[in-house]
Amino acid sequence: MSHSLPDALYQAQQVREMDQRAMQQPGVDGLTLMRRAGACAFMRLRREWPRTQRLLVVAGSGNNGGDGFIVAALARRAGMQVSLVLVGDDRKLAPTAAQAFAELELDQIDYGPFTGALPEADVVVDALLGIGLHGRLQPDYREVIDAINRHRAPVLALDIPSGLDANTGHVTDRAVVANHTVTFIAAKPGLLTAEGPAHCGTLHLERLGVEPGDLRPSVRLLNQEALMHNLLPRRRTAHKGAFGHLLLVGGDHGMMGAVQLAAAAAVRSGAGLVSVATRASHAPMVTQALSELMSHGVEAEQALTPLLARATVVAIGPGLGQSIWAQALLDLLLPVQRPMVFDADALNLLGRHAHVPRENDRVYTPHPGEAARLLGWRTDEVQSDRFAAIHRLQQQFGGWWVLKGSGTLVCGPDQQIELCPYGNPGMATGGMGDLLTGIIASLISQRIPVGDAVRLGVCLHSRAGDLAAQDGERGMLASDLLLPLRRLVNPA
User: Fold this and answer.
1) Distance between CA atoms of residues 98 and 286, nearest Å
2) Residue 2 — very low, low, confident or very high, per pLDDT cuts 50/70/90?
């Protein structure tokens, strides 16, 4: 997804503020920064496609187009055959873009407006819209974006793929699908969540000599290595009681596999003891599948009480269903003072409760559909601004929230949103969320602070998915993550 990005992500308006601050420094103006951006982009182009002979730059009339003009000029000076397609009026360019345009030697460049088809090229540079996009695209931009996406050549996007919202990763209409994106000054949140990763390709950051100063990042990137101090080598005198007793509740009729996967992930993540409360008909099969588990048939909520007395952490939801049985178990657990993880149908049932206790040691792990039901939104509304959705959920229910999906988000009581840069499309298969529940609950049971357990659990889950995907994303199973997960929780 990215090459060594810093952990701080900034919204578009913050980046514009950094840009303005930079231009207050002696010897720095808009054209200086534009030249730096164009030069960095051209270097990336040469690095990724060193044999490029024919370059196509598709530019808009704003400053993103100006960056493209610089790339076009540098490519022509390097001996490339350059075509420049301008979408907009060259008499109405943004002031700094007009300065860059004036430096082009148009007699040496195949230059003209968009006429419905793009010329052949070895690489296409997307310099249409930049980070200033708001709302729907104008028809001419829709047409040229479609033409870029149909083009046979690979695409380098400048700052952001045109049509993508820099703050949210939402695509209102359509957006350029790039192979590489060079983003300038700071990384923007929308590049890394929702539709962002699918449109950016490999992401590269060029700061252009501009620093954020005292601006507070709107989002921070999670970093697994920075959290590994929570998994120190165990003492030689350690015993299972030192690593907690996790109780997993779920597995209604026909859904035993979900709670079984969550339990397996919990064991592989290092929990000392793992008990499963499930339907009586499932209990023997759960233990048969994994002998290290303790499985209990619970047909009435009263049977859960003695199990709770021994548990240090509770997770409910995998395979729970929404039956009367499931509702009764959740009702019993809600007032219990214990660290808890809520997932899957536990979240759907939670939405029916008028009052959910606000506890900082509770973790909720919805996918976008479950988040939408809790908020009373549509799923596409959640996906159009995942940051607003997770912020609203945390404010409404308290505790720690994990909004799953491409660019998984984490938000806790401090309201700081964090984004996971790991993971891959192979993880879009049944059972992956059950694993995450087991991992997070297991880490909490090992006395890792809840916030760190959530952050680390999200990272370990996604990184295990990346390791499993080395054998191919298609056909990957949730259980394929269990062995990589064990390696990850035992750093050398």
Assistant:
1) 69
2) low
- Rounded Cα distance, 148 and 78, in Å: 24
Question: Under a CB-based contact definition with an 8 Å cutoff, are residues 450 and 363 in contact?
Answer: yes
Q: Give, in degrees to the nearest 5, the angle at Cα 299 between 298 and 305.
A: 50
The pLDDT value recorded for residue 492 is 79
How far CA 465 is from CA of 175, 350, 393, 473, in Å, comes to 27, 29, 26, 9
Give the pLDDT band (50/70/90) at residue 1. Answer: low
- Total domains in the fold of the chain: 2
Q: Please report the pLDDT score of residue 136 as a whole number.
A: 87
Pick from 479, 441, 436, 442: nearest CA to 272: 442
pTM: 0.96
- Per-residue model confidence as pLDDT tens digits over 69-106: 999 999 999 999 999 999 999 999 999 999 999 989 99
Given 189, 217, 245, which residue is the final one in a domain? Answer: 217
Please indicate, yes or no, if residue 69 is contained in any of the structural domains.
Answer: yes
Give the DSSP letter of residue 110: E
- Quick one: 348 and 460 in the same domain? yes
Residues 237 and 374 in one domain: yes
Instruction: Tell me which residue of 50, 104, 58, 61 sits closest to 83, measured CA to CA.
Output: 58
CATH number at residue 432: 3.40.1190.20
Domain boundary (167, 198, 217) is at 217
pLDDT digits (tens, 9 = 90+) for 399-409: 999 999 999 99
Residues 6 or more apart in contact with residue 254 via CB below 8 angstroms: none
296 and 418 together in one domain: yes
Structural domain that includes position 204 = 8-217
CATH assignment of the domain containing 141: 3.40.50.10260
Does a structural domain hold residue 3? no
Mean pLDDT of 59-63: 96
Q: Which two tokens stand for residue 369?
A: 């559909």
Alpha helices by DSSP H, 345-481: 345-350, 368-375, 379-384, 386-397, 432-445, 450-468
Enter the DSSP assignment of 25. Answer: S
- 3-17, 244-258, 320-334, 373-387: which range is least confident on average? 3-17
Are 333 and 407 found together in one domain?
yes
State the CB neighbour count (10 A cutoff) for residue 118: 18
Tens digits of residue pLDDT in 3-37: 478 999 999 999 999 999 999 999 999 999 999 99
Tell me the residue ranges of DSSP E strands in 185-272: 202-206, 219-221, 245-249
Q: Which among 435, 478, 481, 7 is positioned nearest to 225, based on CA atoms?
A: 7
Q: The tokens of 308 are what? A: 């709770």
Q: What is the pLDDT of residue 284?
A: 95
